Amino acid sequence: MFRHAIVISFIVLFAGLLHNGGVLKPLKDGLTELRFAAAHRDPTGGIVLVEIDAKSIAEIGEWPWPRRIHADLIRSIDRLESSEIAFDIDFSARSNEADDGALEAALRSAKSSVILATFTQPGSSDIQDGRTIASQPLVRFRDHAWLATVNIELDPDGHVRRYPYGAMIDGKLLPSLATLYGGVSPNTGSFIIDFSISASEIDRISVIDLLQGRIEAQRLRGKKVIVGAGAIELRDVFQVPHYGLISGSLLQAISAETIAQGRALDETEQRIAVVGLIVLAVLVWAARGSKWHHVLLTLIGCAALVEICAGALQVLHTVALDTSAWHVAVLGFMAVTVGREIDLRRILLVLSNTERQNLKIVLDQVVSDNFDGIIVVDDEGAIQSISRSAAQILKPGHRRNWIGLPVKELAPAEMLLAMRNAISDCAQGEWRGSAPRQLHLQDGGTDERVLEYVVTPSRLHENVDTTGGRPAGRFFVCLSFRDITERRRAEQRLAYLAHYDTLTGLPNRNHFTESLHEVLKEKTAGASSGAVLYFDLDRFKTVNDTFGHGTGDLLLQAAGRRGLELVPPPHVFARFGGDEFAVLWREPIAKEDLQTLARRLIEQIGDPYEINGNRLTIGVSVGIAAIDETASGPDVILKRADAALYRAKKAGRGLHCFYESSMEAELRTRQKLEMELWDALARQEFQVVYQPQFDLGSRKLIGVEALLRWPHPERGMVPPNEFIPIAEEVGMMEALGEWVLYEACREAARWPQPIKLSVNVSPVQFTRGNFVASVTKVLADTGLRADRLMLELTESLFVQECGAVRSAIDELKSSGIGFALDDFGTGYSALSYLRKFPIDAIKIDRSFVLGVPDDVEAMAIVQAIVALGRSLGIRLIAEGLETPDQIRVLQELGCQEGQGYGLGRPQPAQLIMELLN
């Protein structure tokens, strides 16, 4: 115990002597620097550094600068309304009268306070001579400025860590620049600079930028400015903690920030270190009976706690606590503790035994808990170790302790043979490793399981076992295996999904492209090698939006089955996605036969479908591209077939078309139109025009129908039948419909008479989003009365029995909004929804009105619609009235309202307002 007390005392005394002798100063400075690095502090922003940098020297073209440059600099800073200007520049020598006069005049006229640098320097080149002389600005400058010292104190290692509050110059106490800017009283002492203040965030301005007026006024207004050297070639640089080499002017700025923020650090007295050493010695003495690792943890904790406290004191209370002696003492106590308590040989022995025991425990646990099956077998075939998964894989449901039992009771014959061969090869030195093998196991039922396994033999070198008499060098084999049945199925499933469509079971685009690539590789030069027929389902989007995706999927499956009947192997009938299909005819085929195939596809796939009690009618258009010598790859052929399909659709749908070279330009034009549509909506290029609706009896204007027009800035007026289908395909009808509704309501609300406003609504607007909320918001924003708005719906909206649609219509109807049935008789006609839904008006489609009065069938249809409307008490509106005879006949039949070119063309809102006036 006495010996332990002597050791503790010696360590405390030794640490104290090192500290008192200054040996620990590098450690103390290093710890302080680490605390600076750990605590980031923003500058106040009130001090701005105007640097004489390399760019300024280069552009002005000489150094030292004539003092008229400094005069210009004062005026430039003064114009930007800074509060104070300090020059870290020597003005103690005369230059020439003109330049000195210019500087004097600038100092005299400056509105800001100007501070000039004063400093002391050695009186001679003799190092032994301790005398200094003061360098002060010329008297003519001092009379118009404040003076401040800019001397820097260097530590023995060449670093700057402290900064003076002031200095005695010619018997007079002058404040330092930092003291003057910080607003504290000068004295002859110094303080530790807080280098946790971010130097990079201090605002720096190049002199040349300031002189040339490139600096914004707010960067200097009300700020304190330090002008000094920033260029490396001026050699006004110092080594500091945390930041390394910085300019003298930046050092002045950090020092001023230190005082301005109240961060001038004070160093603790030496007796604090002594007290700390005594406390540490008492703590070690108190822990003398504890285990050595507890003592080590305590010492480490103490060192960490002391350093945390030191950091907190430095950050929160501007106290630089010297902890270097404490850390040296902690290291000494740790070394003594380890050396006293632990013998090196004992450490090695304990570590060796512990490592071996831990390794055995870990390996046993790894084997037992492994997700894979693992069995370790000795050379006599007895199981030495086994994972729980192994028995579950090989003998499901058999729970027993397999350790020590023969492996043949558990493993299949193929695995047993592999293990015997592995041990034999290892014994003869011929073992070269084993690749994973697969074993197919047939369960009691029809299911087959696939196991992947690998065997690894090992030879253990050990002493003779005297109890068993067995020779050294026993063999063991490790059998590792896993059930990969599900993985194999997943791989097969992934392979299927990579080449087949999950909805229809048809080959997909990837399969089709690979097959087309094979045909291209096999084609004979100069001869046709087959063709690609590309088509999609016309009006499929309407079916999908109207009846839902479930019905749409059934329709795609049915269409796929019909198409497959027309395309026998080895030809390929594939679905590309959505409603797009393609046929790859792999053999040479005449053009006439291709036409026949295309017509059969159009007829058979286009026949009506009966799905979920609904009769669905779609159409098919086909684009055809031959596989010839001009086809460089699958993408080119598919692009050609797509261009031909576009031409077929444009020609009227339900047609087929062969690819021609002129089609590519047409397809590019359409693709460009798609992109321009979205831009047009964003730039509000669209316009709303209004077609008048008249009472056929009085010929009075009673309403208008809002119609969409697109005056393209380059193409001119784009016809609606050209851009509306594209808008539906690219999914922008919802946004476009909302815009039309808002614009029409906004303009109609300003008209002098409360006539009806009819706006077309697509099924997409009803089935997606909250249409009721959207309409309600438009009416509220525009101020249009609800009873003036008539929403025109198409028949396809009512075909699917949808409670949400009925609920939305009822809610809008209750607010006063009216509903008209547009294009009556052209869609999925059914009379029941005229009774179920609150329809206010029926619009007779222009296709029927066109035949009046000469076409007997058209007359019969119109008469039937009029009779139906009158019997149900629903208003009738005839569309497409172009001739006086049509107007007269429709009026005589009992149709109350009408619209068309014979009554009035679509017009801008301004002309409608003039008509109403």
Automatic annotation (TrEMBL):
<dbReference type="InterPro" id="IPR052155">
    <property type="entry name" value="Biofilm_reg_signaling"/>
</dbReference>
<dbReference type="InterPro" id="IPR035965">
    <property type="entry name" value="PAS-like_dom_sf"/>
</dbReference>
<dbReference type="Pfam" id="PF05226">
    <property type="entry name" value="CHASE2"/>
</dbReference>
<dbReference type="InterPro" id="IPR000014">
    <property type="entry name" value="PAS"/>
</dbReference>
<protein>
    <recommendedName>
        <fullName>Diguanylate cyclase</fullName>
    </recommendedName>
</protein>
<dbReference type="InterPro" id="IPR043128">
    <property type="entry name" value="Rev_trsase/Diguanyl_cyclase"/>
</dbReference>
<dbReference type="InterPro" id="IPR001633">
    <property type="entry name" value="EAL_dom"/>
</dbReference>
<dbReference type="InterPro" id="IPR000160">
    <property type="entry name" value="GGDEF_dom"/>
</dbReference>
<dbReference type="Pfam" id="PF00563">
    <property type="entry name" value="EAL"/>
</dbReference>
<dbReference type="InterPro" id="IPR007890">
    <property type="entry name" value="CHASE2"/>
</dbReference>
<feature type="domain" description="GGDEF">
    <location>
        <begin position="528"/>
        <end position="661"/>
    </location>
</feature>
<dbReference type="InterPro" id="IPR029787">
    <property type="entry name" value="Nucleotide_cyclase"/>
</dbReference>
<dbReference type="Pfam" id="PF00990">
    <property type="entry name" value="GGDEF"/>
</dbReference>
<dbReference type="InterPro" id="IPR035919">
    <property type="entry name" value="EAL_sf"/>
</dbReference>
<feature type="domain" description="EAL">
    <location>
        <begin position="670"/>
        <end position="917"/>
    </location>
</feature>
